[in-house]
């Protein structure tokens, strides 16, 4: 029987509306790019030998990258012939899931998207919850090759195993019941168990637990809420979820490192292991004092995340309150607040930070203060514009007509409906705070030199770029990956919170 061939516009629409197709292309290209980087780093010029472990990882990424591109071709064929994916094509996702054994999250997440036809937000969060715990367990397990481990290593690994088992059970139950309009009452136990595993720093477990509790409490109304639609849209963005995965992974391993990593490996000098190349004992090599770069980067994630979050939260709160008051009351109040902030805004942020640190000294708290003060005007302007817009809406006028006070209207009706742009802006600017933290530490004006922080690690490694480039490459890649992750997440939040997409 002859079939009607789709025209160019229909072909483009079918491909563009299929997330599995775009994710397959992205993951395949990313895997091939990583394979190329591994190949370039697989040859040891000093010893004129090839590194077998790096070559094996390169081959694994190359094989799964090519398989993913082949699956992309099959997806395109199915879409052009029948407009939907065949079961045989989706079953290939189980084969591609093996890529997780090689730490290939790009192909692994694309395979997860391919396996299940209808993917709810809860199912997506459940998958990333388990994936985060498994990756943290795998990375923490590398410590067994070190000369010694932390005293609480076994307890920490046992807790991660328990968390993984609970999250695997939650994934299976969510896959079975998440699409039901009314969840069984015993799902409260699943939600509470997920919130308990969130103590490891796993934000996905926290979000999934709260999502299940909201659905259990609101029942039918939950599927029609704006929050539900926003979470659904965010979960469909592969780049945003990958960005959130890396952030969640760093946060989880930073929390779990209190049990699974030995702080002495990161700060104590070991003159018998100076500038060692990457190996099983030292996965990222050692620096010029024999300190383990792997441990230093893990502990440095604490500082980068702590300073990044706190130096963003402070200006969000202070600038948000000042902008809300300025935009709501207007006139003289607006003029006084905004002109004062204009003076602060006229000073370049990095120069203001340097001046504050020079005046009060270089330490972590002064660094947070220095980065926070310069960001207040930008957040105040954003909140002021939002408040001025929301103040003109009908429900605000109705609240005023019913005799509600100014503070009640401002904090109950206006500010909650003006937070979306602030959330997106804060997510996008956390990356800038991370870069500023590392930059000031690199210049000796940030975190104290003896504390493992990515800028400090990069400063030490920059002196050995020609002879031992890995000492600077790995902390630099960590900074780049974290900033890109926040940018990806910010872009996804911007689209998810856009009311035009309702």
Structure report:
The chain is mainly α and 502 residues long. Among the domains are: 18-117, no CATH class; 263-497, MetI-like (MetI-like fold), CATH 1.10.3720. It has 21 helices and 2 strands. It has helices at residues 8-16, 19-40, 52-81, 87-96, 105-115, 121-141, 153-177, 187-197, 203-218, 226-235, 238-260, 264-267, 293-329, 331-345, 349-360, 364-390, 394-401, 406-414, 419-442, 454-461, 470-496, and strands at residues 43-44, 49-50. The chain is globular and about 75 Å long. The two termini are 41 Å apart. The model has no long low-confidence stretch (mean pLDDT 82).
Summarize the structure in short:
This protein has 502 residues and is an all-alpha fold.
Q: Can you give keywords for this protein?
A:
single chain; 502 residues; mainly alpha; MetI-like fold
Provide the CATH architecture of the domain at 263-497. Orthogonal Bundle
Relevant CATH superfamily of the domain at 263-497: MetI-like
Largest sheet: 2 strands, antiparallel
Are there runs of 5+ residues with pLDDT below 50, and where?
none
Oligomer: single chain
Q: Strand tally, please?
A: 2
